[in-house]
Amino acid sequence: MASISLNNVIKRYGAGKSTVQVLHGVNAEIADREFIVIVGPSGCGKSTLLRMVAGLEEISEGKIAIGGKVVNDLEPAARDIAMVFQNYALYPHMSVFDNMAYGLKIAKVPKNDIKSRVDKAAGILELGHLLDRKPRELSGGQRQRVAMGRAIVRQPQVFLFDEPLSNLDAKLRVQTRLEIQKLHRELGITSLFVTHDQVEAMTLAQRMIVMNAGRMEQFGTPEEVYNRPATTFVASFMGSPPMNLLKQAPNADFGGKPGAILGIRPEHLHIGPSGWAVQVDTLEMLGAERLVYCRMGDEFLIVRTDESLTSAPDIGATIHVTPRADRLHWFDAGTGKRLP
Amino acid sequence: MVERNPWLNFLAHAVVILGVLIVAFPLYLAFVASTHTAQEIVQAPMPLLPGSHLWDTYRAALFGRDTGTGSTAPVARMMWVSLVTALVITFGKIAISLLSAFAIVYFRFPFKNFFFWAIFVTLMLPVEVRIGPTYKVVSDLGMLNSYAGLTIPLIASATATFLFRQFFLTVPDELVEAARMDGAGPMRFFKDILLPLSKTSMAALFVIQFIYGWNQYLWPLLATTSEDMYPVVIGIKRMIAGGDAANEWNVVMATAILAMLPPAFVVVLMQKWFVKGLVDTEK
Predict the structure, then answer these.
(1) Which of A55, A81, A85 is the closest to B178 by Cβ?
(2) What does the pLDDT average to over A168-178?
């Protein structure tokens, strides 16, 4: 059973007066075979959290358990995990085969087993014809697959991915994303995937941990995170373009508390003959859709329309938008938390 | 931009050829001198073309002779001493510096900064500055006139430590972490990953330190008194008896040529490795 248990995990750097706390008590229970994405902006502590699970960073307080066993004091190699790094971290002087076999060699796995495991992983990742090459003779996507192969041959309980797609170009990123999904379906190994890209999070996660400034803001399925964000941060982080958060909307019209923040996604605003009067500021034409950036008083709104709108509004013109009544989100203005 | 001025081409070639001639001419003369007899050389003008006594002269130099006013020690023995000294110094320096740089870059330990700066400070202290105390220590330990005495005081190297330190700092941290995830301990990481990646640095240092070890003059002069432990550079000097005595210049020149061959050979050999290493490495 390769479940992961994060119990009030805290991370501090420095000592005495100059202590900086970067993780403020993260709690999460991850079940066996789940694909969990940890997503958040740069500096939110997601890589630190992953590295603490890996054993590359000390745990200041709290417990991390893998498969029911507390691993706080275990070396990375003893935790039965494997990691895929952002910059691949392949050994430059070794062939692809040797790169994948290195961990097994150290663990004194018999040669025949090593060969069969490496060949199997190479088969899954289509690296069979590249086994004799050195990393510098491979493209970025191939290198990343070798890094994944190195993780697979260890047959670990848990896979850890540290922003593995960040160094790939856009097209390759989409391709590798699909390969990772396929891999998880085939192998079913519990995975922790760190990224700052919310698209990767939405497409890969079975559940995701949204982090901000060292705190876990929400832990839920993509559907929950997108449709019922727990805080204004999650609401504006997930979804592109981000959710509109309005402080001065006429809340009473929609049954909201006075002073609360109204959240409405760009795709849930409808341009029509009546509704809020807003001024068009900019237009962005994206092919399949059009983004209309509007201004309402001091606040800005983004409206997403499909291209069936017969004509684009003029810049500076006043249009009327109405929100979908069943897609309103209310947040407390002080704490940013979702109001029921 | 590629210039296509034939006049400049010619000028560039002319300057370089002139430079080569100026540098190579004394070497050529030395070689020519080593192929004549002593009498032929001292006649004015000195012959500019090789003579016919090549084997005689070199044999006399290598295996000793009865004539001559300076030292008549066989050069073969001295070449051997020089070779052993230079190789021991080179391998010793590389081994010690690799381990020191490894410790400095990858470990935390008490007084680490102090040791780092202590090594740095020794860069300002060449052998000559500490030669008195070093001689006393070596002599008290009974290591005079031995290979140990010739090599051990010269083995620690701050330059090599720094070179390796700078190189190790360019090795990405992720490689260390990947190795840790694979279960490699520090020495395993050192042997399997750091050493193979350091091959170019090691080749470069091999050349530098070999030539340094081969050319050592002052320290061997102090540390050895018996002829069979002299390195070849000292042998050359001792063949030249001072004053008005007539020297056997042909043998002296032959010895000089012999003394130049191993370092030249090392440089040529290592050049191949350099280029290969430069082409191969990429992280």
Answers:
(1) A85
(2) 89
Residue A110, preceding peptide bond in cis (omega within 30° of 0): no
- Identity (one letter) of the amino acid at B211? I
Q: Give the confidence band of B283 by pLDDT, cuts at 50, 70, 90.
A: very low
The answer to whether A92 contacts B197, with C-beta atoms less than 8 Å apart, is yes
Say yes or no: B182 contacts chain A, CB-CB below 8 A. Answer: yes
Query: Position B9: which residue type?
Result: N
pLDDT band at B269 (very low <50, low <70, confident <90, very high): confident
Put simply, the answer to whether A76 touches B180 (Cβ < 8 Å) is yes
Residues of B in contact with A75 (CB under 8 A): 180
Which residues have C-beta within 8 Å of that of residue A150, sequence separation ≥ 6? A82, A84, A90, A99, A100, A102, A103, B178, B182
Q: Under a CB-based contact definition with an 8 Å cutoff, are residues A307 and A290 in contact? A: yes
Find which of B171, B181, B282 to mutate to test the A interface (most A CBs within 10 Å of its CB).
Answer: B181
**CB distance B183–A81 less than 8 Å?**
no
Flag whether pLDDT at A307 surpasses 70. Answer: no
Q: What percent of chain B has pLDDT over 70?
A: 93
Distance CA A21, CA A11 (A): 6
Q: What's the ipTM?
A: 0.82
B174: nearest CB among A55, A77, A87? A87
* From B174, B175, B182, residue closest to A106, measured CB to CB: B182
Locate A76 and state its tokens.
Answer: 């990375």
- pTM summary value: 0.81
Whether the CB-CB separation of B90 and B209 falls below 8 Å is answered with yes
Closest CA to A149 of A110, A194, A181, A183: A183
In angstroms, the separation between the Cα of residue B183 and the nearest Cα of chain A is 5
CATH superfamily of domain region B75-280 = MetI-like (1.10.3720.10)
Q: What is the DSSP letter of B191?
A: I
Which of A82, A92, A93 has the CB atom closest to B181's CB atom? Answer: A82
Tell me the torsion sign for CA atoms A44, A47, A49, A52. negative
The residue written with tokens 């008194």 in the block is: B225
Q: What is the mean pLDDT of residues A166-185?
A: 89
**Cα-trace Rg, chain A:** 24
CA distance B251 to A76: 66
CA–CA distance, A295 with A301 (Å, rounded to integer): 6
Q: Pick the most confident of A242-256, A274-288, B175-189.
A: B175-189
Query: What separation in angstroms does the CA of A10 have from each of A14, A36, A75, B197?
Result: 13, 20, 19, 37
Query: CB within 8 A of A336, min separation 6: which ones?
Result: A231, A232, A233, A261
Q: Which domains does chain A have, with CATH numbers?
A: 4-231 (3.40.50.300), 244-331 (2.40.50.140)
Using a CB-CB distance cutoff of 8 angstroms, which residues of chain A are in contact with residue B170?
none
Residue A92 Cα, gap to closest chain B Cα (Å): 6
Min Cα–Cα distance to chain B from A334, Å: 41
